[in-house]
Amino acid sequence: MIRILLVEDDKGIVSNLTEFLHAEGYEVGSAPGQQDALRLLEEGKFDLVLLDISLSDGNGFAVCKAVKENYKIPVIFLTASGDEYSTVTGFELGADDYVAKPFRPRELVMRIKNILRLTGAGGGSIVHLGDVVVDTERGTASRNGKDLYLSALEYRLLLVFLNNRGRVLSRTMLLESIWDIGGEFVNDNTLTVYIKRLREKLEEDPQDPQIIKTVRGLGYRVDA
Q1: Residue 24 and residue 155: Cα distance in Å, rounded?
Q2: CA geometry: angle at 104 spanning 79 and 114, to 5°?
Q3: Are 33 and 5 in contact (CB under 8 A)?
Q4: Helices marked H in the chain — which ranges?
Q5: How far apart, in Å, are the Cα atoms of 113 and each of 95, 107, 110, 221?
Q6: Could you list the pLDDT tens digit for every one of the 224 residues in the chain?
């Protein structure tokens, strides 16, 4: 799974963006400042960095310079500093893209996908669920070598399950996870329909599901 490091000291943005990216199939780590960001980069492997310029300590330019010199991974500036000097400086330091706040989350996801595709980063995007193969970078799913044509909301629901494998998800949790992302009205009855459709596409026997399992009285769990 693609891992993104979000370097941002605004807790509200960190919380909202982390939740959104998580639902889109990305693993997200966060750091409020320069020193924490460099420590996390040294301790773990990340595929991309989302980076603000104004940090709790240091600044994003220094982080970008260190990332490009030591880790050679893509950097997208995500900042309110949209002036010409900041933009030019960011690109001169090797930034791959520059997004000014406020931003649209879906547009940001498309920029992330484009950068990962162009740079060849994040190759480990294949997830297996029994005989179902999900490519989170390409946004595709197949079963026994045949493409599964999932709607946008079906795919996002699948990503929520993938990001919570082994965890029981209540219907309320599922609704909250896909409500703002699906771009359409989703209520409890609609959720039932989408889970049924997803099972029909993923499961060998939808009447005896082995991937999306019902946990009576609690919700659903994927642990394949």
Answers
A1: 9
A2: 85
A3: no
A4: 11-23, 34-43, 60-70, 84-92, 105-119, 152-162, 171-182, 188-202
A5: 15, 10, 5, 28
A6: 789 999 999 999 999 999 999 888 889 999 999 999 999 999 888 999 999 999 999 899 999 999 999 988 999 999 888 788 999 999 999 999 999 898 888 889 888 988 887 776 665 567 888 889 888 767 889 998 899 999 888 888 898 888 788 889 999 888 877 764 444 557 888 899 999 999 999 999 999 999 999 999 999 999 86
Torsion, CA 222, CA 46, CA 98, CA 18, rounded to 10? 40
Which of the following CATH numbers is that of domain 3-119: 1.10.1610.10, 3.40.50.10240, 3.40.50.20, 3.40.50.2300?
3.40.50.2300
Q: What is the pTM of this model?
A: 0.60
DSSP helix/strand/coil, 162: helix
Rounded Cα distance, 198 and 6, in Å: 31
126-222: CATH, from 3.40.50.450, 1.10.10.10, 3.40.140.10, 1.10.285.10? 1.10.10.10
